Amino acid sequence: MSAQLLSFTDRGIYCAEGGFYIDPWRPVDRALITHGHSDHARWGHGHYLCTHQALPVIRHRLGQITAEGIGYGETRQIGGVEVSFHPAGHVPGSAQIRVARGGEVWVVSGDYKVEDDGLSEPFVPVPCHTFISECTFGLPLFRWQPQAVVAAQLAAWWQANAAEGRASILAAYGLGKAQRLMTMLPEAGPILTHGAVEETTRILRDQGYRLPPTIRVTAGIDAKSHPGALIIAPPSALGTPWARRFGPASAAFASGWMALRGIRRRRGFGTGFVISDHADWPGLNTAIHATGAERVFVTHGYTTPFRRWLEEQGYEAGIVQTEFGGDEAETASEADLA
Ligand SMILES: [Zn+2]
Ligand SMILES: [Zn+2]
Fold first, then answer.
1. Do the beta carbons of residue 12 and residue 22 sit within 8 Å?
2. 155 CA to centre of ligand 1 in angstroms
3. b/e per residue, 159-171, with b = 16+ CB within 10 A?
4. Is a pLDDT exceeding 80 seen at residue 262?
5. Closest-lying ligand to the alpha carbon of 331?
């Protein structure tokens, strides 16, 4: 019997027969990348392969790299294995990576969500024997509302703030979440963006993703020029002089972690919108079931309880130690769950 198709090393998930790693966290010769978030697409590899859709942002973030794009569903022979990329529904361009040898199929999910957000290429279940799944929100308490419900909450919040003469500052990660929120907001006025958000937005818009018009915040843009505006900024911009230019403002964070009251309170967000680009508990279970896999390895998140749960459901289950965790993939502490 030949070696396991994918193995777990201190550099990342490795395919010996193909001579490549998937989302490695230390420099390697050949890297297959699921998506552009910084914990998955890291600097220093000899050669990158990702979807055509993910490539522009990855190039923008990493600068001079040797990289190649591949279409969704296109198959490529690499060494002794066949490789293909399939939509993960996480952010624009994100993929699950399928690796096959003979009749044996493994799929690495990367980060994923099953709800169609109207912007990212929607998640497609890929049949496999072994599925390596993220489980950032792998506890039953994480259950997302449909996107339309959160959209209505956002609209009401913005309207109420504007009526009281306050700006609305929405904190969100710059790749994926920020653009998803833009598409959910009513066309009630211009959306202002922090430079870090605008960069990614511009790249995605140039690629043909349908995004509403945005205005980058520059000198001269403030509460006077744009009263009652909605501003999308990275979480790090809150509480800084940059944010104070808008005068009295209401700040909110849009993240799956906002489901935990403790986190919301400690980070000083009066308002939190519970919306995530990761699968919730039902989403994880649906996705795993749909693969038909008999063996599941879980990565970042609540790996221990989630593995136990999978074993109780009759799966052969294991935990893979990775160094992913950056967009939303931090694990909350016990106190947050109380
Ligand atoms: Zn991600
Ligand atoms: Zn991740």
1. yes
2. 26
3. eebbeeebbbbbb
4. no
5. 2
CATH classification at residue 306: 3.60.15.10
The dihedrals phi and psi of 72, each to the nearest 5 degrees, come to: -60, 130
Which residue do the tokens 């500052």 mark?
Answer: 169
Nearest in space to 246 (alpha carbons), one of 238, 258, 255, 254: 238
pTM: 0.94
Question: What range defines the domain where residue 104 resides?
Answer: 7-141+278-337
Any idea which ligand is nearest the CA of 91? Answer: 1
Place of tokens 């990289």: 67
Continuous segment of H or E residues that includes residue 158? helix 147-163
Cα(39) to centroid of ligand 2, in Å? Answer: 6
Query: Could you say which DSSP state residue 246 is in?
Result: T
118: in domain: yes
Do 330 and 263 lie in one domain? The reply is: no
* Same-domain check for residues 11 and 103: yes
Distance 310 CA to ligand 2 centre (A): 20
> Is the CB of residue 198 less than 8 Å from the CB of residue 214?
yes
Q: Residue 321 — pLDDT band, cuts 50, 70, 90? A: confident
